[in-house]
Amino acid sequence: MAFWCFTLPINLFKLYYGDDWGGLFEAITGYGLGGSSMALFGRVGGGIYTKAADVGAELVGKVERIIPEDDPRNPPVIADNVGDNVGDIAVMGSDLFGSYAESSCASLVVASISSFGINHELTPMLYPLIISSVGIIVCLISTLFVPDFFEIEAVNEIEPSLKRQLIISTVLTTIGVAIVSWIALSTSLTILNFGEQKDVKNWQLFLCVAVGLWAGLIISFVTEYYTSNAYR
Questions:
Q1: Is the pTM of this model over 0.85?
Q2: In terms of Cα–Cα distance, which of 40, 29, 31, 132 is closest to 92?
């Protein structure tokens, strides 16, 4: 669904812009701006709503009725929990989507001014979207099949299972991106680097993606090690 929602506007704009690939993908950058705007409004609005409900619950519960914190007998606690779900889950996903859309749009703009963009080679120009498609397929595989191989029988097994899914999805995505880079890209490419032409290889583009994948995995484990109570 996300892939089609991103590909359909490109094809519609293509009818208007024709062979102006640079103008086409510059127009698509508004897609990333819209995603970030929704995340901003969600963060601000959700934060105000959550804090208002939290303060109301504290005043009514502790001051007037002497009810413990987060007690279900206090109605504002329900609104507080709803605000926490909106701000910490829904808006976080919206924020992540905004970052994803901006990075995809930036990659498309760079691709449109490269050699394959000038020669109107569509498949290399959609290389960022193909990478996203590989990620969607890998997420489906790791979500549907990995729990069958690593069954969870206790609460303390949830975290290791999530870590295994993260590692397996990173490995599968790296393999998928390597295959896509070999098929969709030619051996040598020309891109514009601050107005200067620069020749790059397809394996160099794959290396950039692979470094980002594994850097995210390493950062998550390092952050957990220094912030989690389990490693005190």
A1: no
A2: 40
